[in-house]
Amino acid sequence: MPIVEVHILEGYDANEKKRLGHALTKAIKFVVSAVPEAITVMLHEMTPDQYFRGGEMRKPAAALTDPKELVLSFLNSMQDRDLDTARSLLGEGFVMQFPGAEPMFELDELLAWAAPRYQRVAKSYDGVDAWQGDGDAAVVYCRGTLSGEWLDGIAFDSIRFIDRFEVLDNKITRQDVWNDIAEVKLKA
To answer: pTM value?
Structure first.
């Protein structure tokens, strides 16, 4: 039965501590064959005056936004065409890659690329998974189906998609998209 003890500075709210406990449990489960109920995570809070680094008292680092929530906020903003909010969630050097397209760096490029393909598109999610990648970025996968209208007004639905995102410092830096929209369009 794995037991993990973590010392943190006071200042994190209950939701942030819950996220930390959940993430640590998942990290242990990734390596050790144990059911979650057999994994114990203990958070020991310390007041800032009990912690010194480099001989100086330190404040706790701010908790990061849940990368799943950040990505879903971006996707919902894009679907609602709230481009200002969507842009505010993108980091420096953001790049997106869609099937059959050159890499795009601006949301306006995506809108121009999509304009001759369909009138509108919406996503329904079967799942959203996030974890810390091998580098500094968190990785988020969204999977589900697309629905919407072709240019001629005919509705489509149940088109599979997977989106992969990289999130660094509370900003989306990369989006890779895979879907079956071209295959479905050929049959339409």
So the answer is: 0.86
